[in-house]
Design goal:
It contains seven helices and 26 strands. It has helices spanning 4-13, 59-62, 152-161, 199-209, 224-234, 255-262, 296-315, and strands spanning 21-25, 38-39, 49-50, 54-57, 67-74, 88-92, 104-107, 111-114, 117-120, 130-131, 142-144, 165-169, 173-179, 183-184, 195-196, 213-220, 240-244, 265-268, 273-274, 280-284, 287-292, 325-329, 340-348, 351-354, 371-375, 386-391.
Length: 393
């Protein structure tokens, strides 16, 4: 049995960092991991522009005069070459080009209009309501670094820089195989002794949320040959093969035998964690096999704790780091555990409340949970204690 941190390092040592990128339309890149530094090829804005509807003038003129001749007008999108004249102003709209030598804008509410003249009624500072070239972004500036998770704000940045395509890291390819003769696929008729498979679909959905490529998913009965054949097939395309079920020591727990039959390299057999102690891992051909518990919540814990470090290494992205946060326990208590325990809970602000039902086969109360509380071996948890948590992906 290895501890959790050792298991994580073993898994990371057995997945290669990806150096492969692909180019996709910028507006389809949400959820991918950026595969290049984003360096601006332009200034934003590329021209001095007005931040307000008002009048542009040269600030030095204001020191001598408060009355200005209006000699032109510019709306957003217009460009006119207007030569500067002393004591002149130009009517400008928000976002409009401000001609050379005009260096501030007075709001239209702060002037009195007298025909083709204006009188400035309030003090105006130099460059007030005036956006300089490159005020937002300068040409050559690095806006985003490779390895960042692309969110909707980043899409806006790509658009503002005129990027039509961006490079992203080619997704990690994952196959999911749920094993168990008792498992049915949702939609099949429920029979006595059978249950619907849930872990496969939970894991598949989470992976797809982060644009990880689920290249295969299947439900296989407890048959060593069938499971071996399935792993052989998917190992041709998958970087990681996730299996659920068959990892314990029962008569029909076949994963250890599957490893042996495949002549796979065993990486570890058990991890000092609860639930999901019998989780195991192996290397077969170029695929990393991570075999999770068959109990739905235990499988969830195994997956949340052990899979994301694999993704972090593959993508070289801190986005997949499992940041640990400290929260105050409310309305909860928990007796000691011999192993490091991960307890479903809901964090709200600086507080966290543990669920009362902890069975590994129960997942219905996960809908109210957003994190796992980490209970260290030999430690009780009482109301008012400070505990470490990790948020669920």
């Amino acid at each position: 049995m290895v501890d959790v941190n050792e298991a994580i390092e073993i898994l990371k040592d057995n997945i290669d960092r990806s150096h492969n990128v692909m180019e996709i339309p910028f507006d389809l890149s949400y959820g991918y991991i950026l595969g290049e530094d984003i360096i601006s090829k332009i200034n934003v804005p590329e021209f001095p522009k007005s931040a307000m509807d008002g009048y542009a003038f040269k600030h030095d003129d204001l020191e001598e005069n408060k009355e200005f001749n209006v000699i032109g007008e510019l709306a957003a999108g217009d460009y006119k070459r207007i030569e500067y004249k002393k004591d002149s102003s130009i009517r400008v709209m928000t976002g409009a080009y401000v001609p050379q030598d005009y260096d501030c804008v007075v709001k239209q509410e702060d002037v009195e209009v007298l025909g083709k003249k204006i009188i400035v009624k309030k003090p105006v500072e130099k460059y007030m309501n005036y956006c300089k070239i490159g005020e937002d972004v300068k040409e050559g500036q690095i806006l985003l670094k490779s390895g960042q998770f692309i969110n909707s704000n980043h899409i806006g940045i790509f658009a503002s820089l005129g990027f039509e395509h961006v490079k992203v890291i080619k997704p990690l390819k994952v196959a999911i195989i749920s094993t168990g003769s008792e498992l049915l696929s949702p939609g099949e008729k429920l029979e006595l002794g059978k249950i619907y498979c849930s872990s496969l679909f939970t894991i598949k959905t989470i992976l797809e949320k982060y644009k990880i490529d689920v290249v295969h998913h299947s439900i296989i009965s407890d048959d060593i040959k069938l499971v071996c054949d399935e792993i052989k097939k998917v190992s041709l395309t998958a970087d990681v093969i996730i299996t659920t079920g068959g990892v314990s020591v029962g008569k029909y727990d076949h994963i250890p035998k599957v490893y042996k039959e495949l002549d796979a390299k065993l990486l570890f057999r058990k991890v000092a964690m609860k639930p999901g102690t019998p989780v195991s891992a192996a290397k077969f051909n170029d695929s990393l096999i991570l075999s999770l518990s068959g109990n739905p919540f235990a499988a969830t814990v195994n997956f949340q704790v052990l899979f994301w470090p694999i993704a972090e290494k593959f993508y070289n992205s801190k986005f997949f780091d499992q940041d640990i946060f400290t929260r105050n326990v409310i309305e909860s208590r928990l007796k000691t555990s011999k192993l490091k325990r991960f307890v479903r809970a809901k964090a709200d602000g600086h507080n966290v409340k543990l669920e009362k039902l902890h069975s590994s086969s129960v997942i219905s109360n996960l809908s109210d949970c957003n994190c796992l509380v980490i209970q260290e071996p030999g430690k009780t948890i009482e109301e008012g204690d400070k505990v470490n948590i990790i948020y669920l992906f």
